[in-house]
Amino acid sequence: MTTTDWHSTGDLTQFLTRAGEFLRSRPALHTIHLTVTEALRSRGLRVYGEGDPVFGTLERDGEVRGAFFRTPPGRLMLTPLTAEEANDLASQLAKRDEKLPGVMGERDTASAFAEAWMRLTGSVPEIHARQRLYRLGELTPPHPLPPGRPRIATANDREQLTRWYVEFTEAIGESGTSQDPGEWADARIAYGGITLWETPDGTPVSMAGLTPKVAGQIRVAPVYTPADLRGRGYAGAATAEVSRMARAAGADEVLLFTDLANPTSNALYQRLGYRPVEDFAGYDFHPAPAPR
Question: Structure pTM?
């Protein structure tokens, strides 16, 4: 007889003890879970907000088959699940009267959970983002490169990074669930996690970041160029440089997410050598409309 259970905890160490091997078994598909839990472990549980994070595992006959986490006020983040597993999790969370702002995960998983949540709670799901996960194959830097050079951001760039991070999170609709901009800049500067592309006169015009290496994977994030400087090849040059750096750091997999609504960025990353892995989706949950 097969026994399947969801287990929830607020203890990060306990979660990683139970789910760590499972998360590392598919580092590309689990990249968000790996990088976020590493940030929580190294920088504290409140790095993404003032609420207490919650973690969970789906276990079948003692083996972990799925996982989730939530760092309030952010969305519920799911590993790939079957429709039945997503429905079961939604049912358990609804019974506990959980208040969820949304969900994100592999496309079919997120869709199944959103439909179940609407049926169980009356909440109305609205698509927030459709994203594609890419993995780097053979890196092909742009040619010719735009004038200028790459350099790793330092403490002298803190104000610039803070401002660009705010602009970036606003552009992708995540300003309400993002980290404190100053703390984000400090953390990235501390491990050399942001590379700037600067013009020959030393003016920064674009940035590309790398997450720390966890389970052999490094993700390129974020990539940002101010609107008035786009279309000049700066983002491609910066992304190529950090991709090279990730490979040099020994990453087995170099990953990045793109917004499927942006054909320009999707085409750019494919020209650089990135190949599709999986599609993801994010939903926001809205209260059911009041009866008339």
Answer: 0.95
